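Entry 14. Structure prediction run on the chain below.
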Amino acid sequence: MPELPSVGFPAPDFTLPSTSGSDVTLSRLRGRNVLLAFFPLAFTGVCTKEMCAFTDDYEQFRSAETEVLPISVDSVPTLKEFKSKERMSVDLLSDFKREVSRQYGTLLEDKFFSNRAYVLIDRDGVVRWTFTEETPGSRRENGELLERLRAIR
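Output returned:
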């Protein structure tokens, strides 16, 4: 089974469409920390709570000079509807072709969606912390994620 990228190594680059209407390329975000937050599916209970929590704590992540990039296999129209319905401030990325989820080792092939996983990337594009939930129904709290961010500064 593929694994998350190794800590201490450059994060694999990718470009994905987002709910902002433009593509997001990871390597273009150098100079800021990036939190990749792979999540299973829009409109599901835990995913909704997690994305709304990112919105609630948006300013804390911004002040930590961190770009939060939630990624799911949902289509851009589905993610736009999800973002609008839940009034999210964070843009969501669509990995509809499942290439990035495979590349990062988060895709649950038997279910055809991603497990919930986190990849924290520093300003130089180097992976500093990774975590995969045992089940898609679990998630890390933002307090823990922000603590991990403080540790890499």
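Residues 45-56 form the longest helix (12 residues).
Filed with the rest of this week's runs.
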